[in-house]
Amino acid sequence: MTDIVPLDHPYYLLSRTTLIMTSAFRKGLTSANITHVKPAYLGVLIALWQEDGLKVIELGRRAGLEPSSMTGLLDRMERDGLAFRSADPNDRRSQLIYLTDEGRNVKKPVLDVVDEVMGEIFRDVSPDDLCRALKVLRQIIDNANGRTN
Amino acid sequence: MTDIVPLDHPYYLLSRTTLIMTSAFRKGLTSANITHVKPAYLGVLIALWQEDGLKVIELGRRAGLEPSSMTGLLDRMERDGLAFRSADPNDRRSQLIYLTDEGRNVKKPVLDVVDEVMGEIFRDVSPDDLCRALKVLRQIIDNANGRTN
DNA sequence: ACAATATATTCCGTATGCGTAATATATGCA
DNA sequence: TGCATATATTACGCATACGGAATATATTGT
């Protein structure tokens, strides 16, 4: 019988690494005095920095979140002064999400923090190993999507 | 400027893969009619299947969770009839966590589900690639622990 | 024996994401 | 035109994990 060790199970390794990254982002952002940007905002911010004024659904698609997850996230981002909802003049069902000035201004410092944190986290990992590992993750995600979508 | 794509960022790839595994476990367990075992219980169950009657702290150490995270988790596991707390006769500060009969009985079916789900998730990944990827995750975790602990 | 310190748990608030159901609005087809 | 269907968003409850503060109990050094 192979002895099962929770701490060496793929599920643990993955979820722990995710939590480590989340925590590192939180700390990095806090250290840089960017306390109103939470780790979960990153995907949405990056998407909006590329194209402002997206509808919730499209934003969720680009950031990889379900519509129902977007609601709370956008609530927090509005609360924290980074984005706001605005009625879509072309479709009364939908809202368009825009960055505030602050949301636009934090781009540079936030991306600096992201770079620094990533460097720190992957400090011991060779670029090649990292690249291969990420490829595996993409494979897993594609596999899951193929089965679901 | 490299165009930043949220869906290809390491942070997204990791957290998405983690969510995929959690969801797959939930579905697999549900399909097997094991609805009272939640994905988060796995680490704790595995630890207790190896050694029953551990204190919260030690259990958290083996499952990779903070003591404060254990409280709610154990509350849910008690609610779901899998484990229970019992005063430690040797140290009135601590409680010992034991499996119920049910907690012991689900071992085989749960591990079967885990095997099946893992096989499905890693279906497209070569064992060697998987092994390397997991090694990278261990490196990241070790790196983080070295910096924190 | 006692004060100072350490350990074990819990409590509480926060963040994050999901699924299901409800609501509002659009669209398409008879 | 008018109903059936599709789409966009939100509401709600649940699961999961953290960190910091509070509480209870041990242990230790003097």
Describe the structure.
Two copies of one chain form a homodimer. With 149 residues, chain A is mainly α. In chain A, 64% of the residues lie in helices and 8% in strands. The first copy, chain A, is built from seven helices and three strands. Chain A has helices at residues 10-31, 41-50, 56-63, 67-79, 101-105, 107-121, 127-148, and strands spanning 54-55, 83-87, 95-99. Chain A has a three-stranded antiparallel sheet. In chain A, strand 2 (83-87) and strand 3 form a beta hairpin. In chain A, helix 2 packs across helix 3. Chain A is globular. Chain A starts with 9 loop residues before the first helix and ends with a helix. Chain A binds a DNA duplex (30 and 30 nucleotides) through residues 15, 19, 22-23, 26, 38-40, 55-57, 65-73, 76, 88, 91-95.
Annotate the secondary structure layout.
2 copies of one chain form a homodimer.
Chain A: H1 10-31, H2 41-50, E1 54-55, H3 56-63, H4 67-79, E2 83-87, E3 95-99, H5 101-105, H6 107-121, H7 127-148
Antiparallel strand pairs in A: 1-3, 2-3
The structure holds a DNA duplex (30 and 30 nucleotides).
